[in-house]
Design brief:
Length: 202
C-alpha cells in the first residue's frame, strides 16, 4: 500500500527508538504498507563515516562543527533515502531528524535554539515530519539500558536538558508531536506507537 508519510522518533539516548522503529516497520509491512526505515546519524554510506567521527572519535570538535556534520549527514539522508522514498509513496520511519540537532546542539549544547532551527530549515529545504513520536524517559533509566555509551556517556548530565528541550518542542507543536511514556515495557510503548501511527495512516 502506498501512503506518502514521514514520521520520526525522537528522544534521549537509550529511550528505545531503534526497537520501536524496527517493530513499527514490521507491523506496517504486515499491513501491506511500503516502508523505508532510516536513522541519523548514519543512514547512508556517507552518514556511516560521519557517525564514526561524531559518535566515536575524539577530535576536539567544536559544537558548531558538530552541528554542521550532523547537517551533512541529514542532507545526505534526505537526498539519498527520505525524498526518493516519499516520492515512491513509502511511509518513511526516521530515527532522529532536525529536532535532535535543535535539542542536543541548539539547546543543550548552547549553539542556540533559534540559530540551529534556522540552519535546519536551510538544510532540510523545509521538510518537516508529518508526525514525531517523542519517546520520553528519565535519563537515569535510559542510560542504565545502554551498554555502549562512548562519547555519549560523557554527555550524561546534558540529557536532562535535552529531555526538557524535546518536551518543550512537543508542547509548542502538539499537531505534529505525540509524547509517549517510554519508561514502560517495550510492548506497552509499542501499543501506543502503533495506535498513534495507524490513526493517521488509515
Ligand atoms: P543515536 O544513538 O540515537 O543513534 O544518536 C547518536 C548520538 O548523536 C546521540 O547521542 C544523539 C546525538 N545526536 C545529536 O547530538 N544531534 C543530532 O542532530 C543527531 C541526529 C544525533
Amino acid at each position: 500500500m502506498r501512503r506518502n508519510f514521514f514520521l520520526t522518533f525522537e528522544g534521549i539516548d537509550g529511550c528505545g527508538k531503534s526497537t520501536q522503529a524496527e517493530r513499527l516497520k514490521q507491523a506496517l509491512m504486515d499491513r501491506h504498507f511500503s516502508v523505508t526505515h532510516t536513522f541519523e546519524p548514519g543512514g547512508t554510506a556517507l552518514g556511516r563515516k560521519l557517525r564514526t567521527i561524531l559518535v566515536h572519535d575524539e577530535l576536539n570538535m567544536s559544537l558548531f562543527s558538530e552541528v554542521l556534520l550532523f547537517a551533512a549527514d541529514r542532507r545526505q539522508d534526505i537526498d539519498e533515502v527520505i525524498n526518493p522514498a516519499l516520492q515512491r509513496g513509502d511511509v518513511v520511519i526516521g530515527e532522529r531528524f532536525a529536532d535532535s540537532s535543535v535539542a542536543y546542539q541548539g539547546v543543550a549544547g548552547n549553539v542556540g535554539q533559534e540559530r540551529v532551527e534556522r540552519l535546519m530549515d536551510i538544510v532540510t529545504s523545509g521538510l518537516v515530519p508529518d508526525l514525531t513520536l517523542l519517546l520520553d524517559i528519565d535519563p537515569r533509566i535510559s542510560l542504565a539500558r545502554k551498554t555502549d555509551l562512548d562519547r555519549i556517556e560523557q554527555r550524561g548530565t546534558l540529557l536532562d536538558t535535552v529531555r526538557h528541550a524535546f518536551l518543550d518542542m512537543a508542547a509548542k507543536q502538539p499537531e505534529r508531536w505525540v509524547v509517549i511514556d517510554a519508561a514502560r515495557s517495550v510492548d506497552e510503548v509499542f501499543s501506543d506507537v502503533l495506535e498513534e501511527v495507524l490513526q493517521r495512516l488509515e
